[in-house]
């Protein structure tokens, strides 16, 4: 596969994560035609001290991402366990069970016919900014660092699956009422917000793309870590090409000299874990119910680990920030450039998401937000001209 979209096999050891924290956020990508390059994962800073952050089972490395020994203990990071009850977590223990859970699944080791692409896009614009985080700080408005929100226009500290389901969206597909958010980027004291629809890829993270199923309604997680070091950011399994500007790629820090040409923007790509334990929609650390694919021993294939056997779409955000030139004063609301992370809260209309996953991911196509692959017009589209089910 292309170097930006291929997941390179490697064996990863997960380190124990003992944390204390700072903020949460999400990421998105500039809208691209499906024929354009594609590929793909973050967590928070500015969050108060939070109970232990469980380690994720095995991680697979991605294109341009060297094999690593997992994430070592990360001082200063703590994903906030829900200290207070919320409508979806009445006892406040941080666990939200899936209802029903997914049982009886074993990781697929099948090798379907090779296909270069198996993905679709969600094109969503920025809706608002706010110092809220309904995953890490549910029911606690203003407790987080500033976030840039995309998708659902109602996302705030009080958001639940039901409230998002009743909201509106900036995504092209009206059925995508999910919340996507990330720490706000500042250039000096000026916030820099992405303009227009951003691209959020949904793709297969495992070799057997036919085993991928839709996200369960209400699933939420944090990708990355706001308290990670620069090296941990570079070695994160979701790292694709780091911060990009002009012809400069694989940057951990913001490029200091970004070409001052009108078409040049600051970009980042990051992939999320795509293997689910089938038991919880959220856990106290907002991460341990999800895991990255691992390498099937004796092969070059990516499979889900045994304790996270359910293959879901791999979300990959690419965010395009309209800023260039001198970036010496650029920073994230969560801290330095390597504190980048993002959050995802699934509120898709279930039939719409299933249609896109089945047609594009399982069907091995390179689809746009309608579920249409321009290189395979004979396959048709999953959605109509209004981005709705026919």
From TrEMBL:
Q: Which residues form the DUF1996 domain?
A: 133-348
Sequence ranges of Low complexity compositional bias: 45-86
What InterPro entries does its record include? DUF1996
**A Pfam cross-reference name:** DUF1996
Q: Which domain of life is it from?
A: Bacteria
Q: Where are the transmembrane segments?
A: none
Q: Note down the stretches annotated as region Disordered.
A: 37-114
Its name, as the record gives it, is DUF1996 domain-containing protein
Query: Can you name the source organism?
Result: Streptomyces rugosispiralis
